[in-house]
Write a structure and sequence with these properties.
By secondary structure, the chain is mostly beta strands. The chain has two domains: about 50 residues, no CATH class; about 80 residues, OB fold (Dihydrolipoamide Acetyltransferase, E2P). It is globular and about 45 Å long. β7 and β8 form a beta hairpin. It has one helix and eight strands.
């Protein structure tokens, strides 16, 4: 399911020239959430790195994961961080922990009423937000409460 939460006019996310995060961004365009997994020790990690955080192996792959987690923390900014967000606040930014994947944590917006209660530990699921009119097109991962 896709939903539009953020207005048009935001700059497209860019990856480093080394292309390390390209599999993540390609996955979001396909509606898939991918993070790195070490082929040596099996550890999951995010953000993208060339080396495993646990065993220091360089043998890392990108695996699709279920976009389910729990709210670990949050912030409710009231100011726009980009001109395209003028009049779009407040909004809720959540830090989502993925217990099924070694406790990896990812950041994104929490969809819904920006003044809603945000229970720590609440179950959330990933929602893919395509920005097809942007140049180049991109897709963001947002989060919504389950149930």
């Amino acid at each position: 399911m896709s939903t539009i939460y953020l207005p048009a006019g935001l700059p497209a996310p860019t990856t480093a020239p080394d292309g390390l995060a390209d599999p993540y961004w390609q996955g979001t365009r396909e509606g898939k959430l991918r993070i790195q997994k070490c082929r040596g020790c099996g550890a999951w990690q995010w953000g993208p790195e060339w080396i495993c955080h646990r065993c220091h192996s360089f043998d890392l792959g990108w695996d699709e994961i279920a976009g389910r987690g729990r709210i670990y923390s949050y912030e409710r900014p009231h100011h726009p961080v980009h001109p395209a967000l003028n009049g779009h606040g407040p909004y809720i930014v959540v830090l989502v922990e993925l217990p099924e994947y070694g406790g990896v944590r990812m950041v994104g917006n929490l969809l819904g009423d920006p003044l809603q209660a945000v229970p720590i530990g609440a179950a959330v699921e990933a929602v893919f937000e395509p920005h097809d009119d942007a140049t180049p097109p991109f897709t963001l991962v947002q989060w919504r409460l389950v149930g």
